[in-house]
Design a protein that fits this description.
The longest helix is centred in the C-terminal third of the chain and has 15 residues, at 193-207. This protein has nine helices and 14 strands. Helix content is 33%, strand content 25%. The chain binds zinc ion (ZN) and fe (iii) ion (FE). Zinc ion binds at residues 54, 56, 113, 137. Zn(2+) 2 binds at residues 58-59, 137, 175.
Length: 257
């Protein structure tokens, strides 16, 4: 399975999954249809599935037009998103599995950003492969999504599920927010040398207009404050010894940043 990254809108990514053997493709969170249709045309591939993580317009905006071009494509989304995702056919819950070509993804229910948000995790099949995580607006490189419809407790549970995946997992989040996220992270975790190094690297990449996505889950665990609510240094920083409270305070500070 190849993964192609299509930058769209201001800072969104659409991910196109491609199986050359079968000339089939699927997309994760098509904000727009035209760049996807263009790419499918170049690959001479059939679109068989749309995998949505949540209902926001910058994630489902291309669904209807893609379905017009490929009426047989199946639209997947969270069960709780019923009525909010255009063309949705399959209503997924925690533990469900979806297939694309020879690969199978596990569905993780990760509410917090929205009440219905799901993530898709493709575990490695053969040795040498790594897991691929499509986490929408739940976990970002160096940050996490805002809490629009969920509570800090839900978000800590959701991010905790993602944090449990192997370090080698590639994190395909839906936005290029990394540099700003790391700028914030440095204000509350300035002694963290992994974070300092990552910031310098990301800054240089952005100066060259390179994408910082995917990141590796292992580096997120070391440098992303929203996966580090149980770190004593961060807890001390916000004067709490409670994971959820620490997360909530950090998220509140980021909202003001
Ligand atoms: Zn969103
Ligand atoms: Fe978004």
């Amino acid at each position: 399975m190849q993964i192609l990254r299509l930058p769209v809108l201001l800072n969104n990514y659409i991910f196109l999954l491609y199986e050359a053997d079968f000339k089939i493709a699927s997309v994760v969170d098509p904000a727009e249809a035209d760049p996807v249709l263009q790419c499918l045309h170049e690959l001479d591939a059939q679109l068989v599935a749309i995998f949505n993580t949540h209902h926001h317009g910058d994630h489902v905006g291309g669904n209807t037009q893609l379905l017009q071009a490929f009426p047989q494509a199946t639209v997947y989304g969270g069960a709780e998103d019923r009525g909010r995702i255009p063309g949705q056919k399959v209503f997924l819950q925690e533990g469900d599995r979806v297939t694309f070509g020879n690969r199978r993804a596990e569905v993780l229910f990760v509410p917090g950003h929205t009440r219905a948000h799901i993530a898709y995790y493709f575990p490695p099949v053969q040795s040498g492969e790594v897991g691929e995580l499509f986490c929408g607006d739940t976990l970002f490189a160096g940050g996490c999504g805002r809490l629009f419809e969920g509570t800090p407790t839900q978000m800590v549970n959701s991010l905790g599920k993602l944090r449990d995946l192997p370090d080698s997992t590639r994190v395909w989040c839906a936005h290029e927010y990394t540099l700003n996220n790391l700028k914030f992270a440095l204000t509350i975790d300035e002694e963290n040398t992994d974070l300092q190094n990552r910031f310098e690297m990301v800054k240089a990449m952005r100066e060259r207009l390179e994408s910082t996505i995917p990141s590796l889950l292992g580096e997120e665990k070391q440098t992303n404050p929203f996966l580090r609510w149980d770190q004593p240094s961060l807890q001390a920083r916000v004067k709490s010894q409670d994971a959820v409270q620490t997360f909530a305070k950090l998220r509140g500070m980021k909202d003001q940043f």
